[in-house]
Specification:
single chain, elongated, disordered C terminus
Length: 415
């Protein structure tokens, strides 16, 4: 059998999914002709399929010494490099593929995936939009565009793109799960739960969908159902750090402190860099009056905050660290992550200086609460001829005698 016939047979087997037979034929061809480009690049593609990623990159490298401008091979090598977390090298491969083939939609989409990993979200958006301009029914590009928009906190836009992906592929479990995440962030919890259920109906072993469902139940304070969802996620994926973390938060809310502490410890052992985890672990130790390792944890937390890592919610820091700069840094990191600036709103214009000094008090406790009981005289003795006082309440709408006092402004928000 000549080489041309062999390669045609190998490619046919490859396309039919007969990987082992195709691989054997490619290797046979290379034993006779070591510089056979197609045998090298197809063998490299098989290595990517088999997750033999370093071997795949090595084989692509040999192929590129023969033909450095083959767009599909450049794209496939980029896929292997991305899986190896060699993102800059992957980006270079996709750029080379697009220089050779500017209408390569898959390369634009894969390039967007790498830019997303590098947190270059604006560039990733442009890459996905290029892909969709070339291939308007590109399901994965809509999905990945939704993921980036979600990371950018643009939840309505993310929702739109997840729904576009589902129009083209109604059995796309990941799109349903991430659609649920966008709906959860928009506080449409019922719709979010419906979306998670659809994801799980398509893929009953989808650990992330169970965990995401647990997060929605957590927001609804349906803690029993949240725990059940986290347990199912962990049964399917025992190394799921995020599920352990969120399970710990629910257990803490239920005042099951020892179990919560164990859940946080499991999470840290799996992913010590998870956002805000170290502060929560330290806080639960305090609630348990477990002081044995507290000093070490406090030093560790302080070092992370100094390095501008999202290590703790700000109120946990207030209770253990007396450094004002560190308290401020922790609060800034938390607010930037949880409540980023909404670019949809314009800048707030400066008001002209008035005759009176304006003071605004913000609190969740403008109601029958010890803080208000202790502060009410402060509000009453302000000289109203010199000061304009407004209280902004973002707590529960109790409408008791303290809440409805004069000069209080209810913003309609509730936490």
């Amino acid at each position: 059998m000549d080489t041309v016939t062999q390669i045609e047979k190998a490619v046919a087997l490859h396309r039919k999914g007969h990987i082992a037979e195709a691989e054997a034929l490619y290797q046979e061809i290379l034993s006779l002709q070591p510089d056979h480009f197609d045998a090298l690049q197809f063998l490299a593609a098989i290595a990517v399929q088999k997750k033999q990623l370093s071997r795949a990159v090595e084989l692509f490298g040999k192929a590129f010494t023969i033909n450095p401008n083959h767009p599909r091979s450049l794209n496939n090598c980029g896929i292997a490099l991305k899986e190896l977390k060699r993102y800059r090298e992957a980006l270079l491969m996709y750029n080379k593929a697009l220089a050779v083939k500017p209408d390569y939609a898959e390369a634009y989409s894969n390039r967007g995936n790498v830019l997303q990993e590098l947190k270059l979200y604006d560039e990733a958006l442009l890459s996905y939009k290029k892909a969709l301009g070339l291939k308007p029914d590109y399901t994965e590009a809509y999905y990945n565009l939704g993921v980036v928009l979600y990371e950018m906190k643009r939840y309505e836009d993310a929702l739109f793109n997840f729904e576009r992906a589902l129009e083209f592929n109604p059995t796309y479990a990941e799109a349903y799960s991430n659609r649920g995440n966008a709906l959860k962030e928009l506080m449409r919890y019922g719709k979010a739960l419906e979306s998670y259920e659809k994801a799980l109906a398509i893929n009953p072993t989808y650990a992330e969908a169970y965990s995401n469902r647990g997060n929605a139940f957590k927001e609804l304070m349906q803690y029993g159902k949240a725990l059940e969802s986290y347990e199912k996620a962990l049964a399917l994926k025992p190394d799921y750090a995020e599920a352990y973390f969120n399970r710990g938060i629910v257990l803490q809310e239920l005042k099951l402190y020892e179990e919560a502490s164990a859940s946080y410890e499991n999470s840290i052992s799996l992913n010590p860099d998870l956002d805000f985890l170290h502060g929560m672990r330290l806080y639960i130790k305090m609630l348990m009056c477990d002081w044995d390792t507290i000093d070490g944890y406090v030093c560790q937390l302080a070092e992370k905050i100094k390095c501008h890592k999202k290590a703790s919610p700000p109120f946990c820091v207030l209770s253990v660290i007396d450094s004002l700069p560190l308290q401020q840094t922790a609060a800034q990191l938390y607010v930037k992550e949880k409540y980023p600036r909404n670019q949809a709103f314009p800048d707030i214009p400066k008001r002209k200086r008035g005759d009176k000094i304006r003071i605004g008090y913000f609190s969740a406790d403008f109601r029958n609460h010890p803080l208000s009981q202790l502060s009410v005289e402060l509000f009453e003795i302000h000289d109203r001829s010199r000061f304009e006082i407004t209280a902004f309440s973002f707590g529960p709408n109790t409408h008791d005698e303290m809440y409805s006092g004069p000069g209080f402004l209810d913003t309609g928000l509730s936490w």
